[in-house]
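Changelog-adjacent note: as of this version, every example in the card shows the full chain rather than a window. The one below runs 124 residues end to end.
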Amino acid sequence: QLQLVESGGGLVQPGGSLRLSCAASGFTLDYYAIGWFRQAPGKEREGVSCISPHDGMKDYADSVQGRFTIVRDSAKNSVYLQMNSLKPEDTAVYYCATSSRSMCVMIGEVYDQWGQGTQVTVSS
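Full-length structure tokens:
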């Protein structure tokens, strides 16, 4: 069974850090573009970051540039999103997703397999 599972969310104070994990079972993440998306209550889903499958090209939303880092770990068949200097506006459910595109884009419609999401809450 093909499955993506996110983990690592939680409650953190402003300025804190979290590392989200996206682990795959039943297939190899190396062959896919991986995207991280988030959706806050009452807001549309937005792309946060993505990483391409072959050249490792990375992209970030302007709102997280310099604070978030996406990393692929082939040995663990996982992709991580390191989130530093977290702000209350980063509060959302975070999802990882896979796309067969050779170059990643932060457009949800091109991603066809999604995890269940993990909640990130940034609050004092």
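Structural remarks: The two ends are 40 Å apart (CA to CA).
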